[in-house]
Amino acid sequence: MAAESESADDDSFESSNPTPIGVKLGSTRTVLRYPEDDESEELTTVRTLTCLATYEDAITGEEKALFGEQAAAEYPDRVEYMLRSGLPEDDERAELADRFFRELLAANGVPADSAVVYAVPTMENDDGLENLTEVIESSNIGAHTMRAYPESLCGAIPAMGDGVEAVDDVFVSVNMGSTNLEACAYRRGDQLVPFSTGSVTGNDVDRRIVANVEEETQGRVHVDLTTAREYKEEHGDVGNFEPFSDVIQQPGGGSHEFTIEHSVVDALDWYLDAAVNEVANEFLPELANDYMKVYQLSLGNDIAVTGGMACIPGLPEEFERRLSAELDRDVNVVVPDEPDLAAAEGARRIAERLAGQ
Predict the structure, then answer these.
(1) With 90 as the cut, is the pLDDT of residue 248 above it?
(2) Nearest Cα residue to 93 out of 143, 49, 129
(3) CA–CA separation, 324 and 321 (whole Å)
(4) Is residue 173 within 8 Å of 306, Cβ to Cβ?
(5) Backbone angles phi, psi at 17, to 5 degrees
(6) Distance between CA atoms of 81 and 50, rounded to whole angstroms?
(7) How far apart are the C-alpha atoms of 300 and 309, rounded to whole Å?
(8) Is 6 a residue whose pLDDT tops 70?
(9) Who's near 263: CB < 8 A, 6+ residues apart?
(10) What is the pTM of this model?
(11) What is the dihedral of CA 94, 100, 103, 104, to 10 degrees?
């Protein structure tokens, strides 16, 4: 069930109350989940853009760094999103990811005496996965223990129950992320037929919104990818979309107000059709071919849908409807309360179990 694992020395294991921490180092956003303190049942959620910008101190000349939303806002011209492909693929990206993660941990005072579980994407990229492992496991957290589990399993856990019931079930999980669409069957925690494609992603939706806006406004408006993502996240709705207006500054002065009626909806419609096609006609036939009984059992159970795209109102319900129609059978989709936080929350619950709490 676990991927790579690493334990600290025997003295570290003597801690009686290590803090269970779930980590999802994502292509667009990074999320940490852990208890506020030993006495509280409240959880701390650290959620930030996975980006870093460096600058020179005006007085000392020392290189300093900003991360997350502050870096993106103050240095949009040179901010680095080091995990755009989902993983730190080379040494340069790995060094940036390492600095970003260390800055994030230090800024939030994340406990070193902790049991850490981190979610890893389903990708055939050994170098990238090794770099991600090194970034997290070389940090100063996880003194008690450190383990990796598949992101699609971690994300499914809060969708399937209040504890870690999903680990003892047979089901299919679909992760709708920024850089990949992932699908996988699980049989009591064992990962079967992991599937991943980079051709149907949240980033693709953003790019389509950019093109759609230009077409809808007859070339008068061109938005960047950040604005397109904001349109998607703030206005995206499948079934109840309402047109909205925005204003841009014109070259040479003045402003231009425009209304978006179809650009976001059309991009989401494309995504739904493409995601259903990948799951129904690529992933599920392979699952049926290799594990027919698991295929039958998992389609009779709930399908867990997680990831940032599952946050868009109405999208999981429409995915369920279209997938049922494509398979010519009823399927039931379940979604966690916070799909974009689900992987970190599921990882935290596993860490809690590993810490013996």
Answers:
(1) no
(2) 129
(3) 5
(4) yes
(5) -130, 60
(6) 6
(7) 24
(8) no
(9) 209, 212, 213, 215, 216, 231
(10) 0.86
(11) -120
